[in-house]
Write a structure and sequence with these properties.
The structure is a homotrimer. The first copy, chain A, is an alpha/beta fold and about 425 residues long. Chain A has three domains: about 1-55 and about 155-345, Zn peptidases (Aminopeptidase, 3-Layer(aba) Sandwich); about 60-150, Glucose Oxidase, domain 1 (3-Layer(bba) Sandwich), CATH 3.50.30; about 350-430, no CATH class. Helices cover about 30% and strands about 20% of the residues of chain A. Chain A is built from twelve helices and 18 strands. In chain A, the strands form five sheets. The first copy, chain A, has an eight-stranded mixed β-sheet with strand order 1-10-12-11-13-16-14-15, with helices on both faces. In chain A, strands 5-4-9-6 form a four-stranded antiparallel β-sheet. The first copy, chain A, has a two-stranded antiparallel sheet with strand order 2-3. Chain A is elongated. The interface of A and B includes residues 115, 118, 258, 285 and 298 of A.
Amino acid sequence: MIMKNKLEHYFDKLWPICRSITGDGLRQSFSILQELIPFQLYEVPSGTPVFDWKIPKEWNVKDAYLITPEGKKVAQFSLNNLHLMNYSIPVNKEISWEELKTHLHTLPDKPNAIPYLTTYYKETWGFCLSYNEFKQLPQSGTYKVFIDTTLENGSLTYGQCVLKGTSQEEILFSSYLCHPSMANNELSGPLALALLYSEIEKLENRYYTYRFVLAPETIGVIAFLAQFGLEIKEKIKAGYVLTCCGDHGKITYQYSKQANSVADEMMLHFLDTKYQNSNTRDFRVGGSDERQYCSPGFNFPVGTIMRTPYKIYPEYHTSLDNKSVLDFSCLAEIVYLLSDVCRGFEINHKIVPGHLFGEPMLGKRNLYPDKGGAGIMSSDLMFLLSLITLCEIHHTPLQVAQRLKCNILELQTALHIALREKLILPFSSSEKL
Amino acid sequence: MIMKNKLEHYFDKLWPICRSITGDGLRQSFSILQELIPFQLYEVPSGTPVFDWKIPKEWNVKDAYLITPEGKKVAQFSLNNLHLMNYSIPVNKEISWEELKTHLHTLPDKPNAIPYLTTYYKETWGFCLSYNEFKQLPQSGTYKVFIDTTLENGSLTYGQCVLKGTSQEEILFSSYLCHPSMANNELSGPLALALLYSEIEKLENRYYTYRFVLAPETIGVIAFLAQFGLEIKEKIKAGYVLTCCGDHGKITYQYSKQANSVADEMMLHFLDTKYQNSNTRDFRVGGSDERQYCSPGFNFPVGTIMRTPYKIYPEYHTSLDNKSVLDFSCLAEIVYLLSDVCRGFEINHKIVPGHLFGEPMLGKRNLYPDKGGAGIMSSDLMFLLSLITLCEIHHTPLQVAQRLKCNILELQTALHIALREKLILPFSSSEKL
Amino acid sequence: MIMKNKLEHYFDKLWPICRSITGDGLRQSFSILQELIPFQLYEVPSGTPVFDWKIPKEWNVKDAYLITPEGKKVAQFSLNNLHLMNYSIPVNKEISWEELKTHLHTLPDKPNAIPYLTTYYKETWGFCLSYNEFKQLPQSGTYKVFIDTTLENGSLTYGQCVLKGTSQEEILFSSYLCHPSMANNELSGPLALALLYSEIEKLENRYYTYRFVLAPETIGVIAFLAQFGLEIKEKIKAGYVLTCCGDHGKITYQYSKQANSVADEMMLHFLDTKYQNSNTRDFRVGGSDERQYCSPGFNFPVGTIMRTPYKIYPEYHTSLDNKSVLDFSCLAEIVYLLSDVCRGFEINHKIVPGHLFGEPMLGKRNLYPDKGGAGIMSSDLMFLLSLITLCEIHHTPLQVAQRLKCNILELQTALHIALREKLILPFSSSEKL
C-alpha cells in the first residue's frame, strides 16, 4: 500500500476512539498502532510521583448526555466524544438550567464548533456544545445530567520502541496520544511516527539507535522522562517532536531551546536545500512535548516539526479538526522529510583528508574523464574533489554540503568513492590531525 | 509640575547666562541646577596639569562692544553674548577697519546667524556678527574696540553627584556646561541630566550606584577623570553622555567605542523594543565627552544619547540654536528613556533555573488558569514559563527578553513571581551551575 | 611606456608562440618575460615524481596538418596552433575518413571556433577544427595525417622570482604558462604578474618578501610545491593566483579555501572601499592553481583574482579567446589593485596606543586648527584621532579602516604622524599590553 493510503487506512481505524491521558481508549489506540510499530507499553500507576507531578487517576467513560426539560437527549457522547469535557466525574442527577449553565461550554465566534476541553487536575464535570446547539436549549426548567464515567486508581499508558544501531548515540522521535476524536492535533503525529518507523527500519547498517516515544501529552512524557530521561540524556544526538503535521499548510520547523543544536542544523539544512516551501520559528513555551524534553536539567536537542502550527489553524481544539483538515500526501511528506534527515545523520561522520599535498591524480585511479580542456565536470567528480580538499577545514559532509550549497545526500556517491579510494578517511582511523 | 514644564522653567532661568569653560557664569548656572540635583562642586586651580592638558586661566566678562566711525554701538555683548568670541582678552583701543576686519567672524551662508567661536588656548580676541550686520558696517575709518574681560589665575568648576545603591557597580551619566546662550547644544543635556536624577532617586532598593557628572566639555571632563577616573574605572558598568537631546528629531544613540558593551546592549534593547523611532550610529572622534571616557586607558562602556546629532542640525553653534529649536516633550522623552534603561539594569541580574526536569506543575502553585485546552495563555504566564526554561541557557532577563523579542520590563511581574516561588534562583545563591 | 601599452607590446610578442606544459615554446615565452621580471628558471626532468604525479615527457612540435583526398592542406598548425591537439604523438600516415573522424574535434554550437584540447596523460593524437571547416571536409576517401612532434624524455620548465623584504613573511603571486595562442586564459595572467613585479619593486623599505611563480598549470605548480611548498608553508602571509584578468568584465575575487584568511580580508577590503565594481565568489574545485596551493597539507591563504571567470566568458578555451577579448586598461587595473593590496599589507602592522587617559592635546603639538568651535575637521585630523583611540581595541590599521569604513591607504598620513609623535606605538616596541 502506498504511504498516503496506509496513513488514511489507519486514520480511519483510530478516529472514532475516545482517548484521554489514561484509560482504555488510549490502550485500544496503542494496540492498533502496534500493527505498524512494535511499541513496548508501560503502565505507570495512579499516584506515582513523576518529578513535580503525580500520575492522576485513570478515567474511563461509557456514556454521557443531557436530557432537556422537554425530554430531548442532547450533547450525546455517543454522537461526538467531544461533547463530554474530558475527565468529567460521574454525575446522575437533575439540576436547574441556572446551575447547568455554569457547566456548559461553547465558542460563540465559531458557532458550529464543539470546543475541546479537559479537567485533568480538578474534579468537576462539563459538557461542550456548538453555540448553535446551545442557543436552541430551553433557558429554564430542570435538566437531567447523565455522565457514566469512572475515575479510579489505575494507570497511565505510554509506548516506546527502540531500533538499535551500531552506536549508543540516539535519534529521538516523539509524539502524543491523548485527544479524543480530532485529526490534525491528535492523529497526524502518531500516524507519521508509526510510518517513519518503517522507513528507518529499511536503512541498512544503521549507525544511530532510533527511539520512538508515544505518550499522553505533558504528563505522559514527564512519566517517560522520569523513567528514562537521565539514562538517555548523554546519548541523544538529536530529536524531533511531531505535532499537527497533516494539514496542507507549509512545513514549519520550531527550533529546539538550544536553537543551534545539530538537530536544528540538520533540519534547517534539509529545509534550505530540499524542502524549501517551509517556515521556521523559535522555540516557545505553550507548545507540545518539546517543553519537557527541553526543560532545565534535560535541555535535549529536540525541535518540533509541524505544518500549520497549533493555535494558528482555525479548527484547532474543536470538532472542526476532523478528517477534512488532513491531506495525507502532506502527512506523508513529513515522513519523507524526517527519513531524509535520518539519512543525513547516517552519513554525517567526521572525515579528514586521506591525501595530502596537491590534488590527487584522478586519471590513474580511473576517476577522471579522458579529454582535458573540456571545462566540463560531472557533479559527482566535482563533489569528489570538493570533499577531498574541503574536509581539511570542514570536518563533516554536512559542513561540506553547506559550503557547497548543496544537499548532503547529493554527496553520498562521491563520499563512498573517496572513502573507498582512501582519498578521505574517517576521523577515527586517521592519525591525530 | 509635569516634567516638560519643569524643563522649560529651568531652561528660561539658565538661558541668559554667559557661560564658558571657567568663570562665574558657570558657577551661577551650577547654582541654579543645584535646585534640581545636589551637585558637589569642585574647583580646579588654573595651571593644574590634568593628564596631557593644563587648566587654563579663569575668564570673566563684564561687557564688550564695537563703536563704528559714525559712533554707533554694534556687536554688543549685552544684547547677545555670542557677539564676543569666548575667552577674548581685554581690549580698549581704536583701530582701523583693516585691522578690525581680521577679528570679525561671520557665516555668509547663514546670513542671519551669529557664529559661536572660542579661543581657549590662544590669547587673542574677536567679535562674531551675523553676515547681515557685518555688511552694514562702514568698510573704512577708525573703530573703537571695547572688551572688558579678565583672564587671570582662578579655577575651573565642575559638578558631581553620587546616588548610592547597594552595590559598588556604577551607572554613569555625564553632560557638559560651558556654552553661552545656546539651547540644544548646551542646555538640553544639563536639564535632562538634572531631571533624570529625580527619576532615579524614585527607584526603590537601588542596586546600582548612579554617578552624575556635569563639567565643561573636554577640559572639564579631563579634569574630572584626572581626579576620579582610575578610581571608578573598575566600577563602571555602563554610562551615557547626554548632548543635543532637546530638538524634535529622532532619538540617536551613538555606540561606545567598545560597541558591544552592556551600555550598548541595554540601550539598543530599549530602542528596539520600546523607543523604536530612533537611529544608531558608530562611535566617532570629533564628538562630545565620550571621547574622554572612551580614551585609551579608560575605554569606559560609555555611549552617547542625543536626538539630531551635533553638526547635523543647521542651527548648531550659532545664535539660531535658541529656544525655538527645542521641544520639551522630546527632551522629557530622553529622561524617560534613560530612566527605563536604568530600570532595565536594576532587574538584569544573573538567574539560573530553580526547578529541574520537566515543566513545574503550576496548578498546585495556583499559577495556572483552570480549564485546560483553551489555548489561551496570559502574557505573564507565558513570561513565567519562558523565564523558567530559558534561563538555563540565557542567564539574564535581558537575554531572555531578547530571545522572546519583548522588552525586559515586560518580564518584571513574571520574574518576581518566579523568584518568589523559587522556580528561578539568583545566580549567587544557586549551587555552582 | 605607460602600463597598458607595455602590456600590449609584450602580448604581441608572446601571442604567436605554441606553448604547452613542457617544451621550447614554454622556454621561449619565459625568455621574453624575463625582459620584465628576472625569473629564475627550473627544469624538472621527465619522470620525476612530484607528490601524486609524475613529470611527463617533453613535447615539441614542428608542424602538423591534414591532406584531404582532394589534396588540400587543412587544419594547418602553422596557421593556428590550436588545430593540433596539444601533446599529440607523431603521426605520418594515410587513413580513411572513418578512422580520421574519431580524431577530429569541433564545437557545433560555436561553429567558427577551433576548440582547445590536450592529451597530456594519454598517448594519442587529434585535430581541432571549427565546425564550419569540418563540414566542408569530404566525408569519405583517404586522408593524409602529418604530425611532426616529439614526445621524449626532457624536462618541465617553471619560473620563480623572489623579491626580498626585511621580513621572512611572504606575499605570493602565481600564474600559469602552458596554453598555445590564447589571450585571456593564458597571457593575461603572466603579463599582469610581470608588470606587478615592477610596481612592487618600486615600494621602498619593503617589509614583506614577494614571491612570483609562473609555471604550467596544475603539473607545473605541483612541481613547484614539491620543491618549495613545505619550505614556504610557514612564511606565506597571503597569496593570489592570477587568471583570466584581461577582459572588460567586472573584477572577480574568488576566496581562498580558508575563506577568512588575511588574503581574503585585505582583498575584500580593497574591493569594498576602492574597487567597488567587483564580484566575489567562493573557493571551488575545477579552477586554477589555487587548487594546489589550497590542497590539504598546504591550505595556503591563497585566493584567485580574475575578471570574468573561466568557463563563463564564451570565448574560453577556443580560438575566439584572442586579442579582441582583451582590454589592456582592464588588465592594468588588476596590476594596480594587486599593488594597492600590497601597499595595504605593508602598512598593516600591529599598533597600540602610545598615549593614555584622555585625548592628547593636539594644539601643543601643532596638529590642531586654531579656532575652536568651527565644527570642521580635516580628514587627516579625524584619521589621526581615530587611530589614537581605536587602536586600543582594533590593533591594526586595517581593522581601524574597517571600523571607519574608509580605505586603509587613506590612513597612511595620519599613521605616519601618529607614529612619529609616539601617539601610537608599533606593537613590538610597546610594553606588554
